[in-house]
Each structure stands twice: as C-alpha cells, then as structure tokens.
Specification:
This protein has a single domain, classed as Alpha-Beta Complex (Cyclic Phosphodiesterase, Chain: A), CATH 3.90.1140.10. The strands form two sheets. A five-stranded antiparallel sheet has the order 2-6-5-4-7. About 25% of the residues lie in helices and about 35% in strands. A hairpin with a 5-residue loop joins β4 and β5.
Length: about 180
Amino acid sequence: MPRLFVGLPIPPVAYDFCSRAVANCPAVRATAVTKLHLTLHFLGDISHMQQQEVCEQLREIQTNAFDVTLSGRGVFHPSAGHGVLWTGITDSMELRTLQRLTGWALTRSGLQPENRPWRPHVTIARFRSTRFPPQQQQQFLEEDGGEKLVFRTTEFLLYESRADPPDYYPVVQQFPLL
C-alpha cells in the first residue's frame, strides 16, 4: 500500500532561499531541495482503491491559484531526541481554504484527516538533539533576517512517501488550481 500525502510543491526559485537558511548549520541534515514541499494533509498507508477515490474527490476542488510567502524560521521537537528546522509559510485565506477543501475531499473519500492544529511550514533540515544543541538552535532562529520569498502556486499534488525514497517524493497525481 502506498504511503501518501497531499501538498504544495516548492518551486526551484525557492531552493536557494531554503538552502541558505541552513548554510551555517553543519550538524543538521538538509532536506534535498527536490523534496521540499508544504504538506496540506498526510494520508498514511492507503489501498489503491482508496487512492482512486481520493483522486476523484481531489479533482473536484475548484479554487484559484494564489501567492505563497516563505518567511520566518522555527524548530519542532528539539527536546525529543530528533528535531526539524523549518521555514514558515505566511498564513493566508487562500492557503487555509485549500487546506480545508482538501480535508473535506479526504473525508468524502472515507479517510479521516489528522485532527491536530495545522501549522504551514516547509521542513528544511532534520537533526539529532545531541548533534545540534540548544545554543545552535537558538543561533539558527536568531539568524533569520526577516527575508521573505513569494511565489505563485498553480497546483497541488498527491505525493508518495517511500521508506527508501530517492531524492524526491514521486508525484502520484497533479491537481491544477484555477
């Protein structure tokens, strides 16, 4: 069964922005630029029949293309042994609408979307707490100079996440925005 998620692709114009953010963090494992994405919903392992139903429901979404703004930095789970460095996504009505519409589509296809607050971000690196101590995490946060990058998103994707993935997430299906 494929392990799937719905997300927005991060275009090549943003690769340098994300790479620069972790350039001074040698103790982290940077995310391959070809794996950068914004997760809207994680589906987990689903059957091929469920996948077909999900695709049918996602195809029904009719909403406009919109601008996405990368800005800010953060750290998730720094005390749990493993952590994530991320760049934020400026929240917008259009982004929230797409996230909500994809959630409804998943529900109509028989899946239950995650029931936790959604915080839009792009994972730019992963680390072990023992190799990236709190002082370095703080330095990463303080080096945020307020830089922003805006790009237009014209589609959302259904991706597959593999246990031994290549340096990208295979795209299962593309869904254009208006």
